[in-house]
Write the structure tokens for this entry.
Amino acid sequence: MLDSARSPAESSGFSRKIAATIIIVYTVVTLIPITWIILTGFKSVDGAITYPPEVFFKPSLEGYVNLFTTRSRQSQEYLDSLPPPDTWYEELVRSREMVIAGPSKFFGRYTNSLIIGFGATFLSVFLGALAAYAFSRFKIPLKDDLMFFILSTRMFPPIAVAVPIFIMYRKIGLGDTHLGMIILYTVVNLSLAVWLLKGFMDEIPREYEEAAMIDGYTRMGAFFKIVLPQATTGIAATAIFCMIFAWNEYAFAVLLTQFNAQTAPPFIPTILGEGGIDWPAIAAGTTLFLIPVMIFTVVLRKHLLRGITFGAVRK
Amino acid sequence: MASVHLENINKSFGSINALSNLNLEIKDGEFFVLLGPTGAGKTTTLRIVSGLEMPDSGNIFFNEELVNNVQPAFRNTSYVFQQYSLYPHYSVYDNLAFPLRSPLRKSDKKTIDDRVHEIAKLLKIENKLNNKATQLSGGEMQRVSLGRALVRDPNIYLMDEPLSSLDAKLREELRVELKKIQTDLYATILYVTHDQIEATTMADRIGVLKEGLLTQVGTPQEIYEEPNSIYVANRLGSPKINILDNKQIHNSQNSSASYVGIRPEDIKIDQNGSYNVKIETTELLGAETLVSFKSDTVNGILLTQENINVGEGDNIKIGINETKILYFDNNEQRMR
């Protein structure tokens, strides 16, 4: 009797438990490498490569110090001749028989990543929204063919055109520049942005803009005041996709950037330790690298949820 | 306010002719009602006047000035949409203030605030000003939509069935209120409806649309008393006009007519009447009684104010006021 009172759309307690179990197992499995990276960032250089691996250990900030500094090894006599260390990180470095030679390039590379990542995301979403609106509202000759053409740019891996792009960029002086990387990532993301956003734009009733145009706004004014706020959900979703690509991109960054505009992904693996790979520093760099995209996703997630509930109210 | 003149407007959507050669002159300060069923081209006319739709051919004049290529924003019309079209991410207050904040008007805060409250009071939505537009009932949304149009002073108010989803009492109130606003402001209004009561009570003139053709324009009285076709005769009047075969009419004045139209109030129960009919049903409508009758030759309805003491199935005699009979030819056009 109890069973029959339940709505058929609602899942039973048993199937819900199974679903929850699957999700928890999946979450744990996916979180293991991330947890391991974060833990490794707090290990000592030797601790990171002990066998069997340690799960419980005495945390050290050595990885982070190594990430942000360059150091040189000195003899014990020289170290003894120096005045006592001013800071905790100098002390840490000297305990390893080294002195700090200067800051590393990590901060600069990280800033490059932020500029290029957010720049490309903003540009993709902005241009994508304009194009999607035009495709959604206006009579454009060969509209379907154009849409297909835009999509077709995603039918091969972007790296397949790396060589021509490399040559073009060298010719026009865009190689190893922020602008060059922003343009490149925008171009790769734009097809996705146009397609995703067009779907969302199609869902927004035309009457809203028409009302705004009657109320004394130009089409552009109506677009910014009325259409864009309505498309928040789509914009948030698109921005997350674009951001993840631009932030993580490795191959083009290796190929096209070296000094000025190098992003964090090609830089982090090049952090070499003395007589081996400096795993804690690499792990520390990776951990810091995860943070912006995580914050970005969490912030926009609120808009995603709001958008979804909002749609339900209107219907 | 302005006068609006539509000249030879044609508009088709694919193979469907929405408007055919429409000519319409709305005078400054006139309350003009377009009456017609769904799909007659009423909304298309409004959209063409507002500039949201371009006609395939023809000209639109505001105060005798050609506005064919003027953007909607610069035509300065205000539009009450049938689907409300409130801005869902704004509060009621912001919805009402939105037209006043447009770059074309740029009113100061105080003026906007006063105007919004004035309109909200008029439409009885003052207590809803802080609600999101999505947190309103259908009737409230419609009032906000009406308010958004009334908040400013346009060339012409375009209203697309603005009272359709209100309850009967509020609709009656707003009907009176709207007519009062119109006379006070000497406003030009182009109002679209399929409700004949709205049309007859508010309109200075009515235009009857049929499948994109403007079949007749006139004052409510002219349309009611002198319809030029059966179609127009059917659109006004409740209960509906009786359309009978001319042959059924005793001593018809016009032998070449095919059909006749007789308003229910022009048929009376009459001991000396020349038609023997049987009562099918009677309906008491307050002061009047609606009687539907049937015989071998004629059937129809009549409206009487007398206290009748006859019931269903009774045989009665009826008389027709022959001076009021309308004659139509076999194309359903009026014969005079």
About this structure: Chain A has a mean pLDDT of 87.
